[in-house]
Amino acid sequence: MADVAERAGVSTSTVSRTLRGLSTVSPEIRARVEQAARELDFAISRRAASLVTGKTGTVAVLVCTLNSWFMGSALSALGPMLRAADLELNLYVVPDMAERAAFFERLPARRNADALLVFSFDLTEEETSRLDDLGMPVIYVSQHVDGRPSVYVDDVAGALSGTRHLLNLGHRRIAFLQAVGDSGFSFSSSERLLGYQQALTEAGIPLDEDLVVTTPFPDKHGTARALGQLLSLREPPTAVFAEHDEAAVATIRALRAAQIGVPEQMSVLGFDDHPVADLFDLSTVAQSPSDIGRTAGELALRLINDSDADHAQHIVLPSHVIPRATTAPLLQPQSRGQEQTGSP
Amino acid sequence: MADVAERAGVSTSTVSRTLRGLSTVSPEIRARVEQAARELDFAISRRAASLVTGKTGTVAVLVCTLNSWFMGSALSALGPMLRAADLELNLYVVPDMAERAAFFERLPARRNADALLVFSFDLTEEETSRLDDLGMPVIYVSQHVDGRPSVYVDDVAGALSGTRHLLNLGHRRIAFLQAVGDSGFSFSSSERLLGYQQALTEAGIPLDEDLVVTTPFPDKHGTARALGQLLSLREPPTAVFAEHDEAAVATIRALRAAQIGVPEQMSVLGFDDHPVADLFDLSTVAQSPSDIGRTAGELALRLINDSDADHAQHIVLPSHVIPRATTAPLLQPQSRGQEQTGSP
DNA sequence: TTGAAAGCGCTAACAC
DNA sequence: GTGTTAGCGCTTTCAA
């Protein structure tokens, strides 16, 4: 910076003021400084700046993996959003329990970020309270934590509308397919099940535990097995509501392999509006991970800049049913169902 | 840090030495300092440290999106790798041309990272040379740039082996399906086409331009259209080599919709070993994005720590053919082909 | 509107 | 093995 100051014939203070865009610099000097900076390829060292301002200009993001549609979409939206606010994005990838323990033990983000975004973890009480005294706003994304700022989709309401959609089509025997990932049940999973149950209850349909089946995911044959349970019931379902689209697609494939027409003999509904949903013409309950990412970023910004902001605010994002070709009225084959015939 | 020093009854230098793990601290003092640090929840400010060491302790990563299997896997491996080396990961997401221009205009990573990893961009000469005077090692990942450190899979060799596999199965009419994404042809695309052509040439088979078809991707009906071209040739292919697995899966679905048996009447080969490949039992040429990510991180580390290291080194990672159920010998139905029958 | 000087929190060089 | 001191590159008073 001293070089720039010398070249422009001003003090470092003036260079600093110019580069920060303060209006207290006369136009001619500003021009001189900017040119000098350009000629010397000078860029501010945020680290030196943060030392004196006390702000790091960085948002930390904690994720367990990036290898999913949800994470990919959310971060692809969060990144540019933060960049627009001139914030750096510091990524912590914590794929297993060991690394997770290490993260919470050392909390490397401490003093190195202005806020932390925690994505889709199911944190223990202990972990949550550990984050409480991190000395920065912590935003919980895609999960709700009482008393802490959170951003998420209302999975209960989403599953409720999805199930209502099936009910409105005349289905009464509706199965719910839980897909358990490597890390055990997720938060969304139980919320979605809850919405399903609520819808049945409000329709006066008694809950039948046999209609709720669980399969490991991803697992090539697990879905077929789960389906087998349903199809061998005394009164099999006429519709399957899968916890997420990928499980729904696996269901469709298993059904077609068993020569069971979708949606003629079985309606299938997913959740997420994952890209495969469009590909398979799957009816689904859509959520928008990019909205989640962006909204979380905006909340972070607000909490950073405004210490009076509500530090327990929950932002609940909407979901909506997208009827496509895999749900149809009960016992009443539709023309749109025939487009599907013979297609894999 | 002063607080910790006071609490432990030592100087800040000793605290610094202890926390950095230097061996020049006596065990008893070390214990005192560590306890004091723990009690005060003290963590080093990397930003203050970097000011004096000149190292930022950060690796910057430039990506255009995170929303792909490749990026997700690569970063999910890179993250923990960097963490193990006690480096922060600073992510720059540059989804469109405007943001890209802004990035190269301002180069926000300048002075704020020790190295830059550029993922899967097709950079212009100008952009590359702009990065040259960034003052830090720049590693090109999943692309090769002459004279700069690069990490990538040998797409030519991969496509060569893939095509040879089809040739060895007796196929002589082999189509190549190019899948053009939103951003136009990618580097890999043309390399893979080249490998395909090389294999045919070495087998003494003249190149037939009609066998190379192009489809937009993702596009629900594009693949069927491209397939239509192939199937209406005077001498249709008996095998299709798709540029990547997702296009291969689309091809399989289009073929099955048209009642053309895979692999009985048409072999289909993909590239990548994307998760869908396993799901669809798709034969493919496998690459490992996580290896790419990890290797790139290791190279970055080497270039950061050893200024004598070769700054033009290209690391080429292997790919290998994984035969699954979608490729079979020409005109000679196999038992493994029958497993497929009736399955969607 | 600009400059001089102090100091952010840390590490490194040197002395003990 | 430990403490003292100087200074990394910035921003921020404060004075001019």
Automatic annotation (TrEMBL), chains A, B:
CDD domains: HTH_LacI, PBP1_LacI_sugar_binding-like. InterPro entries: HTH_LacI, LacI/GalR-like_sensor, Lambda_DNA-bd_dom_sf, Peripla_BP_I. GO terms for molecular function: DNA binding. Pfam families: LacI (PF00356), Peripla_BP_3 (PF13377). Residues 1-53 form the HTH lacI-type domain. The keyword Transcription applies. Keywords: DNA-binding, Transcription, Transcription regulation. This is LacI family DNA-binding transcriptional regulator. It comes from Streptomyces thermogriseus. The lineage of its organism: Bacteria, Bacillati, Actinomycetota, Actinomycetes, Kitasatosporales.
